[in-house]
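Input record, target 12 of the design panel.
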């Protein structure tokens, strides 16, 4: 039985205990994160740039989201914490109408998601969020830097002026009103995230938004140092890129030099059989 994402975030808001969310895309990583004590997993459409080789999230399709949600769901179920909730991104233009949002959210839920996330707070998005929550789909919003609309942005940091900060605060309130159980705040000044967190009764989930949000989310590849690029808002808890490229270079060198495979990596025939065979 799954922990309800709504319950998880509501209790955390009440108790003040931080929720840890990790964005990732495959079964072994999902099991690893669940075993490490993550409270919830996001199957983020950041998969577009992080593992699919695109230069953003716009190219990510429903089919990709379904494929990876199923994989993550299998990984979580195989872990020591099989009940932690999975939130999946509704990808670019998958919620242009409330009908599309409902159909695509249902597909993600059937693939193993326990909630969906959508970006923005314009009238269409708020309507989609409202319809989904009325249908019983837990919805997380996403404001600040919203990669699906990155073509409209001049810079990455959002909410630096009074006016821009107020737009984020008002948008978050509209999403709360629409029934969302939480809202991601991406790359906004800490002061903005702190005020939004203080004024909302639902949880905020920060990424590049300072220490005061109710939850924190990072992409797993960033936190283990697998992404070649160092991001200011992420902390690298390992240098996996260096470690893994060293291991791969060792393998190449050993195969070329005859060091791999060794006797311990193979099998011999039964000696009598070998005699009659040769
Ligand atoms: O797609 C993603 O991984 C996200 C997080 C960065 C919040 O939306």
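The sequence produced for target 12 reads:
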């Amino acid at each position: 039985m799954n922990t309800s994402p709504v319950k998880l975030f509501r209790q955390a808001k009440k108790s003040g205990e931080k929720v840890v969310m990790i964005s990732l895309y495959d079964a072994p990583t999902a099991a690893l994160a669940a075993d490490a004590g993550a409270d919830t997993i996001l199957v983020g459409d950041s998969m577009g740039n992080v593992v699919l080789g695109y230069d953003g999230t716009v190219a990510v399709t429903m089919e990709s989201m379904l494929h990876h949600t199923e994989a993550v769901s299998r990984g979580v179920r195989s872990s020591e914490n099989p009940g932690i909730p999975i939130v999946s991104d509704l990808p670019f233009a998958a919620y242009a109408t409330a009908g599309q949002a409902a159909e695509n959210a249902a597909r993600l839920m059937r693939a193993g998601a326990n909630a969906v996330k959508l970006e923005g707070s314009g009238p269409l998005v708020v309507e989609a969020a409202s319809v989904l929550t009325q249908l019983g789909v837990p919805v997380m919003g996403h404001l600040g830097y919203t990669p699906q609309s990155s073509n409209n942005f001049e810079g990455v940091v959002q909410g630096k002026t009074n006016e821009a900060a107020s737009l984020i605060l008002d948008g978050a309130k509209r999403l709360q009103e629409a029934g969302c159980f939480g809202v991601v705040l991406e790359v906004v000044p800490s002061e903005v995230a702190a005020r939004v967190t203080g004024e909302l009764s639902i949880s905020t989930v920060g990424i590049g938004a300072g220490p005061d949000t109710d939850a924190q989310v990072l992409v797993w590849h960033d936190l283990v140092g697998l992404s070649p690029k160092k991001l200011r808002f992420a902390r690298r808890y390992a240098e996996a890129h260096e470690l893994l490229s060293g291991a791969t270079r060792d393998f190449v060198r050993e195969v070329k030099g005859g060091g791999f495979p060794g006797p311990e990596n193979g099998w011999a025939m039964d000696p009598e059989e070998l005699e009659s065979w040769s």
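Residues 240-257 form the longest helix (18 residues).
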